[in-house]
C-alpha cells in the first residue's frame, strides 16, 4: 500500500476508527511477523513482540513523519520493540537464558508461515546462527532492501557499525553456506 494511503488510515485510526486499524494490520502483519520471526526465537515471544509493535503503533501515531515511507517507520517500530524485548529478557531471565543455551530447544524456523516467499531452509538456518546484531542488519538488508544508511538510521547506530556487522554477517553466512549450490551462493556473494 502507498505511504499516503497508510497515512490516511493512520489519521483515521488516531480518531478511533477500528476498521482503519484492521486494514493496516491486515496489510502489514505478515511482513512484520516474518521480520520478528527471524529476530526472536520462540513463538510465544514473537506473539508478545507483535502485540507490542501494534500497541506502539497506536500510541506513537503522532510521531509518524509523513516525509518518510510508512514501512520505514513501521520497521523502526519493529526493531525498537525487538530491542526492548531483548533487554527485558536479558534483565529478567539471564540465568534461565544461559541454561536454555546449553539445552537448546528446537526452534520453529522451518514452519511455512515463517519461511514464506520461498526462503531456503539452509539459508534460514545459516541466518539463525548469526549474532543478534548481525542478524538484524542482514534481515533489514536482504529481506527489506534497506541501504546501509537507512539501516543505520533505523537502528540509531553509526554507519560504520552497520557496515562492520553487515560484512561480519556476510562472512559468517558464506562460511555456514559452503555446501550451498553455486547459483544460491551468487545472491549472497553479490552483496
Distance between the termini: 28 Å
Strand content: under 5%
Helix content: over 70%
Work out the radius of gyration: 17 Å
Shape: globular
Helix/sheet category = mainly alpha
Low-confidence stretches: 105-116
Total beta-strand segments: 0
Domain RNA polymerase sigma-70 region: 25-91, 126-175
Family: Belongs to the sigma-70 factor family. ECF subfamily.
Pfam families: Sigma70_r2 (PF04542), Sigma70_r4 (PF04545)
Keywords: DNA-binding, Sigma factor, Transcription, Transcription regulation
What does this entry look like structurally?
The protein is mainly alpha-helical and 191 residues long. The protein is built from nine helices and no strands. The protein has helices spanning 3-14, 18-39, 43-59, 70-103, 121-128, 132-142, 148-155, 159-176, 182-190. 23% of the residues are buried.
Task: List the SSEs and their pairings.
Blueprint: H1 3-14, H2 18-39, H3 43-59, H4 70-103, H5 121-128, H6 132-142, H7 148-155, H8 159-176, H9 182-190
Family: Belongs to the sigma-70 factor family. ECF subfamily.
Domain RNA polymerase sigma-70 region: 25-91, 126-175
InterPro entries: RNA_pol_sigma-70-like (IPR039425), RNA_pol_sigma-70_dom (IPR014284), RNA_pol_sigma70_r2 (IPR007627), RNA_pol_sigma70_r4 (IPR007630), RNA_pol_sigma_r2 (IPR013325), RNA_pol_sigma_r3/r4-like (IPR013324), WH-like_DNA-bd_sf (IPR036388)
Amino acid at each position: 500500500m502507498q505511504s499516503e494511503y497508510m497515512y490516511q488510515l493512520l489519521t483515521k485510526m488516531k480518531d478511533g476508527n477500528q476498521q482503519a486499524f484492521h486494514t493496516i494490520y491486515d496489510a502489514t502483519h505478515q511482513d512484520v511477523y516474518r521480520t520478528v520471526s527471524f529476530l526472536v526465537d520462540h513463538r510465544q515471544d514473537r506473539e508478545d513482540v507483535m502485540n507490542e509493535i501494534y500497541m506502539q503503533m497506536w500510541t506513537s501515531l503522532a510521531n509518524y513523519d509523513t516525509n518518510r515511507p510508512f514501512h520505514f517507520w513501521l520497521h523502526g517500530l519493529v526493531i525498537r520493540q525487538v530491542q526492548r524485548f531483548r533487554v527485558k529478557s536479558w534483565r529478567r531471565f539471564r540465568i534461565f537464558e544461559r541454561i536454555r543455551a546449553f539445552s537448546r530447544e528446537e526452534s520453529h524456523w522451518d514452519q511455512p508461515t515463517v519461511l514464506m516467499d520461498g526462503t531456503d531452509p539452509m539459508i534460514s538456518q545459516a541466518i539463525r546462527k548469526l549474532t543478534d546484531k548481525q542478524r538484524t542488519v542482514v534481515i533489514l538488508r536482504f529481506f527489506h532492501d534497506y541501504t546501509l544508511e537507512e539501516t543505520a538510521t533505523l537502528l540509531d547506530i553509526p554507519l560504520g557499525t552497520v557496515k562492520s556487522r553487515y560484512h561480519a554477517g556476510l562472512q559468517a553466512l558464506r562460511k555456514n553456506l559452503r555446501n550451498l549450490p553455486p547459483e544460491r551462493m551468487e545472491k549472497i556473494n553479490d552483496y
